[in-house]
Design goal:
Layout: E1 2-6, E2 12-24, H1 26-41, E3 48-57, H2 61-65, H3 68-84, E4 89-93, E5 96-98, H4 99-104, E6 111-114, E7 119-121, H5 125-132, H6 136-143, H7 153-158, E8 164-165, H8 193-203, H9 207-213, H10 216-219, H11 222-240, E9 247-249, H12 255-263, H13 268-285, E10 290-296, H14 300-309, E11 313-318, E12 322-328, H15 329-341, E13 346-350, H16 365-372, E14 384-386, H17 401-406, E15 412-413, H18 414-423, E16 428-431, H19 437-445, E17 450-453, H20 460-464
Parallel strand pairs: 2-3, 3-4, 4-6, 5-7, 6-8, 9-14, 11-15, 16-17
Antiparallel strand pairs: 1-2, 10-12, 10-13, 11-12
Helix pairs in contact: 1-3, 8-11, 8-13, 11-12, 11-13, 12-13, 13-16, 14-15
C-alpha cells in the first residue's frame, strides 16, 4: 500500500503499508524501502504512517538465496533514515506480524501504536524451542511471567515497545495527545465534579461539551489547553490518589501548576484561576510566530551551541538526549535542520505556538508573579512533598513562588527532576495525564521503575488496586 492521507487538522502524511496478512519477501521489502527512501529524499517533513498487518517474512528458497535478511535490514534502515531526515515514523499495528517482517516494519518505527485486535509475535514459542533446544513446556511456563518471551499484544505492551493501544470506537485522530475523551474516566466521580465545574467557569463552557465539540484551534489554544490539562491532572488526583498514600509530586511545564494544587498549596479553584493567569501572561508576551521543536541524539553542549547560533533557547532537557527548543518557528526549523546535519537522530518543529521556557516569554514573568502573590500558599497536604521542576528541590510554600514564576522563561531540566525523584527512593510513578508520553519517557530512562499512566487504565479501580 502506498499513498497519502490528511489528518483532521489538515496536515498531510505519507501512508505505506504491509497489509492483507501477506508475507514480506525480497520483492515487498525492496518496494517498501524504495517508497520510504523516496519520502526521505523529498522536501517535505510530513510523517510516515506505516500500516502493518502481515505474516512473517517469506521463507522461500528464492528469497533466502537472494538475501532476504539483507533486504529486511535495508527496509529497517530506510525507516530509520527517514526519521533522521525529519519524517516522523509511526507504525500502526492492526493485525498480525511476526519474526523478521515484524522487526523490519513495526519495530523499526520511532513510535508504535496498535489496535486491540493486533496479534504480533517476534518468535512463536515452538520456533523458540527449536532454536534454544529448551522444551516447549518450559518456555510456555516462563512465558506466563516473562513477557519478553511471550507472543501477543499484551506482552509487547508490557515490555514497553507499544506506546499506546488505541480504541477503535473513538476517532484515532484524537488519541495519543490532549484528546476529546480526556475527562471520560471522571464523568461519574464525585471527587472530580467540583474541579471540572471550576474549569467550566473559567472556560465559559462545560468542559465535557468543550472537549467533544470545540474546533481544534480552540481546543489547542494556549489558554484552553493549559486549563484543560491542569483540570485533568487535578481531577485524576482527586479521584485516585487518596487510597495510594504518601507521594512526591512533580509537574512537567504547566504540569507544575497541577503539582502545586495536588500538593495542597492551593485549592483546585485557585490552581485553575492562576493557570488561566499564566496562560494570559504568556499569550500577551509571546510572538505570533513563536513555536517549539525538539532535537534528539546530540550532546547538550552541541544543542546549546546550535540554539545560540539560531537565536533560540533550550526549553526542556529530557532524558535520553532529548531537548525541546523554542524561538520563532523559522529559527526553530533552521535549528532542527542544522541539528540533523550534525548527526541528530531526529529533529523537527512541533505544533506548539508558544516558545515556553525561553527568554521570548520574559515579559510574562512579572505579571504572572503578581498573580501568584494574590494567593497565599497553604501548608502541603500531609504525606505529599512537592518537587520543583526548575531546580529539583523541595518547594516550601511562598518561598517557591519566585521560581514558579521564573519557570516561564527558564529552561526546565526534567532529566534532573527525574533523577532527584529516583535518588529520593521513588519506585513507582503514576502519570496523571492527559496521555502517556511522560510515563513512556520515564519507563525508557528508568526501566526498573514501576511506571504507569492513568490513561493506561480503563477504570479508576485498576489504579488504586
Amino acid at each position: 500500500m502506498f499513498g497519502r492521507g490528511t489528518s483532521p487538522d489538515g496536515r498531510v502524511m505519507h501512508v505505506i503499508g504491509a497489509t492483507a496478512r501477506a508475507p514480506i519477501g525480497i520483492d515487498q521489502a525492496i518496494r517498501l524501502s524504495a517508497a520510504v527512501l523516496g519520502i526521505a529524499r523529498s522536501e517535505d517533513d510530513a510523517p510516515i504512517l506505516l500500516l502493518v498487518d502481515s505474516a512473517s517474512q517469506r521463507m522461500s528458497r528464492r528469497d533466502e538465496l537472494l538475501g532476504l535478511s539483507e533486504h529486511l535490514a535495508h527496509l529497517a534502515k530506510s525507516l530509520l533514515l527517514a526519521e533522521a531526515r525529519g519524517h516522523r515514523t509511526i507504525g500502526l499495528l492492526y493485525g498480525g506480524s511476526a519474526a523478521g517482517a515484524f522487526i523490519a516494519t513495526a519495530l523499526a518505527c520511532d513510535t508504535l501504536v496498535a489496535l486491540p485486535a493486533a496479534h504480533p509475535e517476534v518468535m512463536d514459542l515452538a520456533s523458540m524451542a527449536r532454536v534454544t533446544k529448551l522444551s516447549i513446556d518450559l518456555l510456555e511456563d516462563k512465558a506466563k511471567t516473562t513477557p519478553v518471551l511471550a507472543p501477543g499484544l499484551d506482552n509487547l505492551v508490557s515490555v514497553g515497545r507499544v506506546a499506546e493501544v488505541w480504541d477503535p470506537q473513538r476517532s484515532l485522530a484524537d488519541q495519543g495527545r490532549q484528546d476529546r475523551a480526556m475527562f471520560d474516566l471522571f464523568v461519574d466521580q464525585p471527587a472530580a465534579a467540583p474541579i471540572l465545574a471550576d474549569a467550566t467557569a473559567i472556560l465559559g463552557q462545560d468542559v465535557h461539551h468543550l472537549v467533544r465539540t470545540a474546533a481544534d484551534d480552540r481546543l489547542h489554544a494556549n489558554a484552553t489547553s493549559q486549563t484543560l490539562c491542569v483540570a485533568r491532572g487535578l481531577a485524576a488526583a482527586a479521584a485516585c490518589l487518596e487510597p495510594i498514600g504518601p507521594a512526591l509530586v512533580a509537574g512537567y511545564s504547566v504540569g507544575e501548576m497541577t503539582a502545586w494544587g495536588i500538593a495542597g498549596l492551593w485549592s483546585p479553584a485557585a490552581t485553575l484561576r492562576l493557570t488561566a493567569a499564566r496562560a494570559a501572561a504568556m499569550d500577551a508576551a509571546g510572538g505570533a510566530q513563536d513555536g517549539l521543536g525538539f532535537v534528539r541524539g546530540l550532546p547538550r553542549a552541541a544543542v546549546e551551541a546550535l540554539v545560540a547560533r539560531f537565536d533560540c533557547g533550550i526549553a526542556i532537557v529530557n532524558p535520553g538526549l532529548l531537548f525541546v527548543t523554542g524561538g520563532t518557528r523559522a529559527q526553530v526549523a533552521a535549528c532542527c535542520n542544522a541539528a540533523l546535519s550534525q548527526g541528530a537522530v531526529t529533529a523537527r518543529p512541533i505544533a506548539v505556538r508558544v516558545a515556553s521556557h525561553t527568554r521570548r516569554l520574559s515579559a510574562a514573568v512579572a505579571p504572572f508573579r503578581t498573580a501568584l502573590l494574590t494567593e497565599e500558599p497553604a501548608r502541603p497536604i500531609r504525606g505529599r512533598t512537592l518537587i520543583g521542576a526548575t531546580d529539583a528541590t523541595i518547594v516550601r510554600g511562598a518561598a517557591g513562588i519566585a521560581g514558579l514564576a521564573a519557570q516561564i522563561d527558564t529552561t526546565i531540566d526534567w532529566a534532573a527532576t527525574l533523577e532527584a525523584l529516583v535518588e529520593r527512593g521513588v519506585e513507582r510513578l503514576l502519570e496523571l495525564g492527559p496521555g502517556t508520553a511522560l510515563a513512556d519517557m520515564v519507563g525508557a530512562a528508568y526501566p526498573t521503575l514501576d511506571v504507569r499512566a492513568v490513561d493506561d487504565f480503563r477504570s479508576l479501580a485498576g489504579i488504586t488496586r
